[in-house]
Design goal:
The structure holds two protein chains of two kinds. Chain A is mainly alpha-helical. Helix content of chain A is 50%, strand content 0%. Chain A contains three helices and no strands. Chain A is globular and about 40 Å long. The relative contact order of chain A is 0.19. Chain B has eleven helices and ten strands. In chain B, a hairpin with a 4-residue loop joins strand 2 and strand 3. Chain B is globular. Classes of the chains: A mainly alpha, B alpha+beta. Chains A and B meet through helix 1 and helix 2 of A and helix 7 and helix 9 of B.
Chain lengths: 82, 377
Amino acid sequence: MDETQVKIKEFLSRFLKSHDLQIDEDIFALGFVSSLLAMQLVAFVEKEFGIQVEDADLDLDNFRSIRAISDLVARKSAPATA
Amino acid sequence: MKLELTVVQRAARDEFRDFVSAEIHPHADRWDREAAISRKVIDALRARDYLGSNVVGKYGGVGRDMITYGLLTEEIARGCSSVRSLLTVHDMVAHAIQRWGSPEQRQSYLPALARGKVLAALALSEPNAGSDAAGVETTAADSNEGWVLNGQKKWTTFGQIAGLFLVLAKFEGQPTAFLVERESPGLTVRPLTGVWGTRASQLAELTFEGCCIPHGNLIGRIGFGLSHVIAAALEHGRYSVAWGAVGIGQACLDACRRYTAERRQFGVPLSDHQLIRRLLADMIVNVRAARLLCLRAGWLRDQRDPVAFMETMAAKYFASTMAVRAANDAVQIHGANGMSDEYPVGRYLRDAKVTEIIEGSTQIQQNALPMFDFEEF
């Protein structure tokens, strides 16, 4: 995992206790994502990586796994092209 | 860690306090009896940028920070919890639009909300859906003309005068949020009377019968209406209600200070009786503790820290239960006078109880808080 993915794993692991979350593991399938965690996850990626999650980004596939979240961060962090 | 207000925040608090003492406190008991606040006080809130005050400058707001916003909410609630509830619901909707609205929705609605030109209300609860918000029965269907809503909402605070409603409905079984303007065809608003807490908060029942709204009034994405849009509104509401409960606690303390100094029994002021002092001591410490929790939650919210969600929940839980205890003790201290309309403490008790029910009941907070991993100090 790269640095971004490690940070995402650390954040999610706070809610998973003893489970060792894998990079492509579906966090929704694990059944621990409440609406409060969903909001916290958005706040976490915004604060930690300096991005703004918009309404258009509200797609479960953007938050389904460590890799999906890191891909979202990468896309949102990339400089806008003309 | 420095836990003190800035010079600007102190000045703002003094301004709020003076306003409430002059414009709200003297009228609150009458508004409570009449089950409505005055148009004049709403105009005064507008004129002072007290409505929608978290809306950022880009959309015409003053972008009040969360600490200052909390101080405003406390002071307003110290005077009248019904007026506080107007700020709460209006700002909940503004916050949700600012957080999850499309650029077009932000441009369309936020300037009017920031000026208080349009009042907003949250239409979430239904006859069969309270704490279980995912169980709403209001439906949305897609049509060529737009979204078509059918269903009923209940306990909509300030629904009687709101011009814009944030509504949760189900589209194909998925919780989805919509912005519904009051004039929308198929929407009927009826006053809901007979409540005994925050009696002047002008509750309404809304009925949607083939209520058609433009496609552009979907806010957030389909299926994210509760988990993100309404959740953002509720999180802001919890913060506002927590501060409102602190305001009630402070109002109880102020009333008891006055009463125990003036009222004499057994030849001495009540304040000389040790058992009364014990009640006052608990009230003083608990109000201060609740305020500190609110300040910490506000500071974290300003930092956009994910921990803010649980700290806000903790603050709301403690402050609302504290307010009920403080108001209960305030009535006890006032004795028979506490049961009379001549003193405000009975209203404080009724209004405090509301803070334990709205924006997540005490039991919802008790159920959720142990699931969080709180940071160690």
